[in-house]
Here is the input.
Amino acid sequence: MAGFFLYCGQILTWLPPLIFTIMNEADINLSWAGMTLNVYMIVAIVLWWCMKPWDQCVADAKMNKILGISSVDEA
Here is the structure.
């Protein structure tokens, strides 16, 4: 999950400023452009709620290692 987090962070970091800049250059009111930044926060919070606690992720990873299950086997 840490690798996925870093990957998504690097890939999507430029998106909110780009959308804000496009809306600003299109003479859209800055309050509307600023509100679009909240969409990313709401999506992040929803995804955060769906995550397991870190301790449970570590325990699951240890159990999968003991059982010899790899992520490739599950797919």
In short: The mean pLDDT is 82. The helical segments are 2-12, 15-25, 30-50, 54-67, 71-74. The chain has one domain: 2-74. Residues 30-50 form the longest helix (21 residues).
